[in-house]
Specification:
Elements (H helix, E strand, L loop, with lengths): L3 H10 L3 H18 L4 H10 L18 E9 L9 E7 L1
Antiparallel strand pairs: 1-2
Length: 92
């Protein structure tokens, strides 16, 4: 069965596919530039470019064969994330 968290992420993605695709492209650019990437990096770059934030759908950015978890964590600096730990990703 699908977890409530997974259901929530899938609901958040519905209608946001185009924005999610842009977020993934940004994530790839960042990973190519600095070697690794996490959700805060992508969110900051989206804001810098004037692109609306993904919100809960950002949990889907790295659910792609393009990305591999490094095993590392980053403490989120976003106030709304309350110092939640984010996975650090690299390109596959």
């Amino acid at each position: 069965s699908v977890s409530k968290k997974q259901e929530g992420i899938e609901d958040a993605v519905d209608g946001n596919e185009a924005l999610l695709a842009v977020a993934r492209e940004i994530a790839v650019e960042i990973a190519r530039t600095k070697g690794t990437v996490h959700a805060d990096d992508v969110g900051k770059e989206m804001v810098r470019r004037g692109i609306p934030p993904l919100g809960p759908a950002s949990g889907h950015i790295f659910r792609s064969e393009q990305f591999v978890w490094t095993g590392e964590w980053h403490e989120s600096t976003r106030v709304t994330n309350h110092a939640r730990m984010l996975r650090v990703w690299r390109l596959a």
